[in-house]
C-alpha cells in the first residue's frame, strides 16, 4: 500500500481541509469502537499494529490526521478494510449527494498526486473508484490488492503511465489502461501538464481467477 496522507494544506483550500475533517471525525470513533469490540487496550492495539499508543490515542480523540499507512496498519490489526474503517455505520438514503468539500482526499507520499474517494461505501469490498488529479511527475506506488484484482485508469486530461511487473504502458486523454493490481503497480503523471483520470478497482475479479 502506498504511503498517503489526508490533504490538509491550504491550496485554494478549505474544501480539502473539510474533507479531511470528515474522514478524521469518522475515523476516531470507528477505531475506538472496533478496538473495544475486540476488547483491546490501547497498548495491545499498539503492539499488534505497530502504531504508537500515543498516536492511536490522538486518532481516537480526533487530534491528528494520520497517514494512510497508519490507517492501513490499524485496519490490518482490526481485521477490516481501510474503507470500512473510514466509513460510518449509519443507514444512508437511497439518493444522496456528496458535496465537493465533503469528499475525502488522500495524497501520495510525494504530495503531487491526489485521490478523491468518490466510490460508494457499500461496494468497497468488491468495487472502488476514485478521481485522480496529479501534477507533472506525481507518482502513486501501491502494493498489491487481493489476488485476482484488476484496476482501470481512464484518462481525461494529461498523460499517465502505469508500470506493472516491469511492463509499462501509457495513456492520453480519452484512453484507458486496465491492469492487474494484485501485485505492485505504479501510476505516474508524465509530461509537463497536470493530469486527471478516473480510477476503478475491481477486487477479486472473476476474470482473473
From TrEMBL:
Protein name: Helix-turn-helix
InterPro entries in UniProt: Cro/C1-type_HTH (IPR001387), Cupin_2 (IPR013096), Lambda_DNA-bd_dom_sf (IPR010982), RmlC-like_jellyroll (IPR014710), RmlC_Cupin_sf (IPR011051), TransReg_Diox_bact_type (IPR050807)
Keywords recorded for this protein, A-Z: DNA-binding, Transcription, Transcription regulation
Native source organism of the sequence: Bosea lupini
GO CC aspect terms: cytosol
Pfam families from the UniProt entry: Cupin_2, HTH_3
Gene Ontology MF term list: DNA binding; DNA-binding transcription factor activity
Highest taxon, organism lineage: Bacteria
HTH cro/C1-type domain sequence ranges: 31-85
Record's keyword annotation contains Transcription: yes
Lineage: Bacteria, Pseudomonadati, Pseudomonadota, Alphaproteobacteria, Hyphomicrobiales
Amino acid at each position: 500500500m502506498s504511503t498517503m496522507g489526508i490533504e490538509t494544506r491550504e491550496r485554494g483550500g478549505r474544501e480539502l481541509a473539510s474533507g479531511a475533517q470528515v474522514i478524521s471525525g469518522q475515523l476516531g470513533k470507528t477505531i475506538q469502537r472496533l478496538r473495544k469490540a475486540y476488547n483491546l487496550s490501547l497498548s495491545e492495539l499498539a503492539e499488534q499494529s505497530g502504531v504508537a499508543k500515543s498516536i492511536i490515542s490522538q486518532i481516537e480523540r480526533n487530534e491528528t490526521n494520520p497517514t494512510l499507512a497508519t490507517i492501513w496498519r490499524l485496519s490490518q490489526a482490526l481485521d477490516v478494510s481501510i474503507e470500512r474503517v473510514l466509513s460510518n455505520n449509519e443507514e444512508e438514503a437511497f439518493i444522496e449527494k456528496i458535496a465537493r468539500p465533503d469528499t475525502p482526499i488522500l495524497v501520495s507520499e510525494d504530495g503531487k498526486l491526489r485521490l478523491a474517494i468518490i466510490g460508494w461505501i457499500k461496494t468497497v469490498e468488491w468495487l472502488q473508484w476514485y478521481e485522480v488529479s496529479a501534477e507533472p511527475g506525481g507518482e502513486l506506488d501501491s502494493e498489491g490488492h487481493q489476488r485476482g484484482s484488476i484496476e482501470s485508469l481512464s484518462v481525461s486530461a494529461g498523460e499517465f503511465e502505469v508500470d506493472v511487473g516491469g511492463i509499462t504502458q501509457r495513456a492520453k486523454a480519452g484512453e484507458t489502461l486496465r491492469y492487474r493490481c494484485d501485485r505492485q503497480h505504479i501510476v505516474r503523471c508524465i509530461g509537463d501538464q497536470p493530469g486527471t483520470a478516473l480510477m476503478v478497482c475491481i477486487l477479486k475479479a472473476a476474470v482473473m481467477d
